[in-house]
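Lab notebook: predicted structure, single chain.

Context: the supervisor wants predicted structures on file for every construct in the current expression panel, including those that have not yet been purified. This is the next one on the list. No modifications to the sequence; it matches the entry in the shared construct table.
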Amino acid sequence: MASVKLGGNAINTSGNLPKVGEKAPDFELVRNDLSISKLSDYKGIKLVLNIFPSIDTGTCAASVRKFNESASQLQNTKVLCISRDLPFAQKRFCGAEGLENVENLSDFKNGSFGKTYGLEIIDSAFAGLHSRVVIIIDENGYVKYTEQVSEIADEPNYEAALASL
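Prediction complete. Output recorded below exactly as produced.
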């Protein structure tokens, strides 16, 4: 279990993030068209997992915008923005913002991604949502970088994450 802060108050997550050097756990997430996306779908591609509580908060929206901007310059890399939001909300946000370089995936069905990756918030008003995390996975499926942002309202360290690619 990890502890992060929400508005300065300590809250807990369901476990710990995968360790750098470990094989990334598989996942099943829902795409905007309601089809299923699995980690194995991205074999041979580097991944930036931009994980957050909800697309409808300022910091979460800012992280999607920032990674969208960076993604256009990344070779053999996809940015996956993951939350518990409905796929329709994710699609609406990116459409309204004109964001085309990121792929939104939803963990709305059963939250299994958040549980497997140890980042589901288990207490507070945000219980059941994901904590703010960035995970970099290499083209062979191994974790290269992780950051669990200590205060949910803060943005991740974009430069450190992207430098690990």
